[in-house]
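As a warm-up, study this chain.
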Amino acid sequence: MTAPRIGFDAVRALRNRTGLGSYSRGVLAGLRRANPALPMHLYSPRTPRPEFAALPETLGAELHLPPRRWQRFGVRAIWRTFDLGRDAATDAIDLYHGLSHEIPRDLPATGIRSVVTFHDLIYEAHPGWFPIADRWSYRWRYRWSARHATAVVAVSARTRQELIDRYEIDPSRIAVVPPARNPAFAAPIPAPEREAALARYGLPSEYLLSVGTLEARKNHAVLVAAMALLPPTATLPLILVGRDGGEGPALRRAIAAAGLDRRVRILTTVSAEDLPALVQSAAIALYPSRIEGFGMPIVEGQSAGIPVIAAAGGHLHEAGGSAARYADPENPAAWAETIASILGNSSVATAMRRDGAAHARRFDGDRLAPQLLAIYDAVLTGAQLPATTDLSEASMERIR
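Now compare it with the structure written out below.
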């Protein structure tokens, strides 16, 4: 039997350095390892960034760019939304996977079966965090895609429930497959290489670390307030790593007002290549985000073998499990107390390192890619989707 030809929305994989780009590259790499013979076709409205130019060849995949009439600036995105499906049909694609919330509008009319991955519906839960034009665009494109794709992959049980509640998607059409972790965070980095990375950013040998875009929902302000409650002589410095999404100036003002200039630093230009070394060198990873679809920095911290404290409230428990500790995202004193309880107790820190590393292995790409292949098979044959993966502690045992 001829292997099915799978098309992928690859714009994020070929253009985005983090976030949805990392997710897309992880999916593609995992699928290639799981099935070396799978015909993979990557669709993108733009050519790859230089650092990702070799990705199609590395994957053994064929890259498809817009036809000449769609290659002018300003219309390439229109091709991706309205005309890509016809080209996929011409290419004899059997199944198309939209890796970031959407499928082409013309795809259903071609008869090509489809899967769409949803990472979150934060724009619905907190519309005020998004410009009105973005909010309208997301709702128009993403809700339609969820309703018209053959099947939906949610990266967490929380996102699955949001799809059911907000978009009224039939639960039988949604499967949960978490994102795969980046193995670079779990691979031990030799001490000289880690020390060289720390030197490039002027960092001490040990510190508290929070990785995430500097924006309001990531809630770095609670960490700055917590640092003000911790005694300087008993606390490591705090390093905030992430591009500035608009909250940088406010955070710097808060740091200065609290007299924490020597104890809190912001780094907005850490390279993806250096980030694993910085994470592995941290004493504790802190992730106070108010809402996420999943929370991959938690898994990355656990993969690196360091204790993780995340925001309480349930939205991050799927990523951290019982191996992480949780603190009220609106309570600086709770963060200060939890940080101190780990720094001041080596046995607690050791147990969190051990348990966190074990928990993070559950997100290995080689364990998750077969789940996607099983979903593809069900979609292509018209069978019922595989049982939804519930990311609770008990159910995660079933996919070890």
